[in-house]
Amino acid sequence: MERVKAVATFRQIGEEIYRTDTYIQFGTAKQSLGAVVMLNPGSADLKGEAKWQLHHTGCYTDEISLDSTMRQLVDFMTSTHSKLEGRLYIYNLIYVRQTNHIDAINLFQHLKLIGKYPTISLPSLQEMKTHPWLLIGWGVETKKRWTYYESEKRKWLHLINNCGIPYFGVLSEKNEYYHPCPNSPAKKERLDQLIQAFKNTIEYKKLVNNN
Description:
By secondary structure, this protein is of the alpha/beta class. The chain has helices at residues 48-57, 68-80, 101-113, 125-128, 147-163, 187-210; strands at residues 4-13, 16-26, 32-38, 59-64, 86-92, 134-137, 167-168.
């Protein structure tokens, strides 16, 4: 992983910290290798000068350490690509930083309800079309009271269908998409499932198109 790094932008809005514009860089090329849409950023924190800059300017972009999910994504990329030169882009349904996924959704619901969640636009169709594929992994939790959260999922699915790029993920029995890196011994099993889903969807589509 010597030529792999992660870069992200942190924004402080009110009392909350948001992590946006995140990507994993392989080598030096800027082209997109693919994209992932997950639930929300974890709890990675800025320290020292970076933390001071964020507090005083409200926005700071820097290299960040790879968390467990990013390392799982790196393993996925090295298992499915013979050559890695470019960026894997990471999007989220919710950009507010929070470790626990249930807490993240509840916080998002609360901020939306009181009008304090910032306006963060979905990527444009033009941006989405720069990605050769999209991995969906925003989790399988659902509750009727999570109206804003379900609305974000619908917006993303609409965008994905409109942009026309191939997408895949590991589906549950209720047709929800599992997170790519569970906090359990099932991590290796999930990696194998992701690799198989990629082969069944993306590689198969390439094969069909080439023939």
